[in-house]
Amino acid sequence: NTLYDPYSEGADFVRGYPFSLRAGVPTAVSHGLWLNIPDYDAPTQLVKPLDRNTRYVDAVLTIPKGTLYPMCAMNLAFNRELIGAAMYFGIMGDGQPLGRYDDMWAGWCTKVVCDHLGYGVKTGLPYLWHSKASNPFVNLKKEYNGLFWQEEMIPFFQSVILPKKCTNAQECYLELAKQAKEKLGPVDPYFNNLADAMVTWIEAWEEFNAPAKVKNGTA
């Protein structure tokens, strides 16, 4: 007696849902899925090169508070006003010791921030058709460190606690940068650089998103 998405057109709440909880919360991130070529890491790609995802589920689910997920940027929408400041993909890729974790890093950061600020994160519809497989040998070079470091990154995000004084995405993200440097910096100096880049990102965000000034006041 449950519903995937009680907010979908034509749906209603079944018994047992308090009226005080039926209003919902603002959705900050919508993470769509895809069919055909799955989003595997390089080792799994090499072991299962012919795997295809054919299961379509006509549903939208809310990712529960306190639950992480591996966000992919290929089919993604987000509310820039609510969470844009935390949607930074980090310094990853060519010349860096970590690649193919940029969107997942942003996903873990934004999920922690959304949980703290009381915003929703959805996954499910809409789907897209993914037909271009990436090269697993190239991916392995990019992912190699991450395959080990994710054993430290995930527990970090699972245990991070943001203080109540953080009331917007910018403040939450700066606190995340501070804690990432403290907890992940000992894993590898790369995380110190990443944390510094997160701070620089917020500085740039606030500079380019400052309220417009007008004569004798602000706009």
UniProtKB/TrEMBL annotation:
Do you know which PANTHER family this protein is assigned to?
UDP-ARABINOPYRANOSE MUTASE, UDP-ARABINOSE MUTASE
Q: Name one GO cellular component term.
A: cytosol
State the family it belongs to: Belongs to the RGP family.
Keyword set for this entry? Cell wall biogenesis/degradation, Golgi apparatus
Q: What Pfam family does this protein match (any one)?
A: RGP
Q: GO terms for molecular function, please?
A: UDP-arabinopyranose mutase activity
Query: Is Cell wall biogenesis/degradation among this UniProt entry's keywords?
Result: yes
Localization per Swiss-Prot or TrEMBL: Golgi apparatus
Q: What is this protein called?
A: Putative alpha-1,4-glucan-protein synthase [UDP-forming] 1-like
Any single biological process term in GO? plant-type cell wall organization or biogenesis
